Amino acid sequence: MQEGPAIDVMSPRRPRRSRPTWVKYTLWAGSAVLVAGTGAAGFAAGLWLSFQNLPDVTALERYSPSESSQIYDIKGRLIANIHGEANRSVVTLPEVSPNLINAILAIEDDQFYNHQGVRLDTILRAAVTNLQEGRAAQGGSTLTQQLVKNVYLTPAKSFDRKVTEAFLALEVERNFSKDEILQMYLNQVYWGHNNYGAETASLTYFGKHANELTLAQGAMMAGLLRAPENYSPFHDYARAKERQKLVLDRMVELNLVSSTVAAAAFKEPLKLGRVRSFRLEIPYASTVVLRELEEKFGPEVLRRGGLKVQTTLDIDLQKMAEASVRSGVARLQKQGRRASQMALVSLDPRTGYVKALVGGVDFKKSQFNRAVQSRRQPGSAFKPFVYYTAFARGKYTPDSFILDAPVSYGIFQKYSPRNYDNRYWGGMTVRKAVQFSRNVPAVKIGQAVGIKNVIATARQLGMRADWQPNLAVTLGSVDVSPLELAGAYASFANGGFGVKPTTIVQVTDRQNNVLLRNLPQLKLILDPKAVDMTNDVLRAVVTSGTATSAQLADKRPVAGKTGTTSDFRDAWFVGYVPQMVTVMWIGNDNYTPLASGTAGGTHVAPLWKGYMDRALKGQPVLNFPSLSAALRPAAPPVAPAAPEAAPRRRRKSVPAVPETTPALPTEEVLAPAPEVPVLSQDRTERQSQLPQGELKSPTPSEEKFIP
User: Fold this and answer.
1) Catalytic residue numbers?
2) Rounded to two decimals, what is the model's pTM?
């Protein structure tokens, strides 16, 4: 497939080499012979037109072929390979095995290092063949001519194109060294299955980098060049072996290898790789990364720019989450719950880094990503924002008294909230009202503190919705996405500091320049004492309330809230520990109700527990902040000074990423954020060592917070 050269940073111009006179005469003589083989009609006009408006080959000095963008997880493992028409990874000549180079030269151009871009003998041989067959059946191109054709010309075989190709090849040879030409060729040539260049083809056909190819593998790859799709071992292994034998025999004939070595290479068993084109290892999560990248850089840069993207995702945790979603829906259907879909989001509240994200049961059947694209009513899972607002404004504490009794609001259009069980329990503490998810107390408190203030809290925590200032908001009548809800709850888990959920740690270009780095931007947006109270009542939900089935096997402290809409169309559980927030939602895309009685506490919370028991295995057990003794929140706290960065060494080739988040006011309670390994830049999928440098983190802001 033809591609024009992409212009990159200007490089120094190399001295022009004068072309030997005999080469000029050879070209013209060869052109005349080629004309005789293809017919003399239109010779003069065709020759004149061929040399008009030719491209400047010196632009190849700045040639930068489009390159695939690679997306990795937090540990440096490849999860996606994104490209446009050309799937390519650019390498230098020393990064290509001599086994492949020698095999290509043997079968494609054994005089490459001796000719000046064209070969009279091959032109004459091609002309004779063309004359015999009465058509342009053979071209006799050198590697330089093939490079020129791939970069500048069309693949059609014609007299005009051949003359132009030969002229441009001479110009390329005059301006570039042989090694430079060979390197450009190896990165440009098409190898089949949407693979351009030696590196990408090597990874596809044999799962190896180009510098690791054996003689057997190099000979087979060289044999593919003439017709990659026809000779592909994925399509016809026997035919690929025939081509491999042809290459090995030619190498023996040229004394590049001995017959014994060639015979051993032919007998060598070859383990094939797999087609890597448009690879998406974890599709639901990968598409969220792609959307975030396209918003920042645009689709063309992503598909042609050769970006290296380190995400916040953890493949192990992601696959665990995907398995939990599949098994969870199967379990619910077996119970007769009539749930067809499920979404899950896990993020680290200390950084906002999304660790796992699943938007449905089967991506192949439905690409609709319910974790970010679906907006559903959270039901009682919204109530914590009502109670936090009440605590922060000093009107209530967890031990305040509230009456669970019938109430109506409005004159002409009355609103009379009801409890889930259609019963009223009378007087109780706020803690008990949250613990057992009583609706009427939540509405009363929302009315007392002001619905506009509740909405302000939700907005401050990143929830986008069509907010209508009515009392139904207190019971979760607005539509939110699971990702939004996870980001909002993160501020409860980390002591009141807001974080912006993201799936990207950093992005570098093909020269390892940092284009984007998402450091945790911690900003104090909630009253820490009110957050302590909120955590206290949400812990009671798990210890002895509607979500006792979410208690984890290792007995670590858990806070959370169930959510069930009144018509059973949605069921939620949002639970968190200091180092992870996980949201689970179940429902149906067509909004048909789940089976009657399908609730967040009885049906979603157990699924949450099963996933979190595995996800937190090996993680330290951390405690939440203790309940403050103050009856009302104090003035906004003064943000602590940023910790001094100890002098450390930094890798020169890779920008450092902080190993921990900034210290928070409750350091004795909150664990440091997990170490973030920087993505290796050496074209491997192995995890690189942690950087030795440390960037000074910004001091958390003491700007205004809710209320």
Assistant:
1) 108, 380
2) 0.64
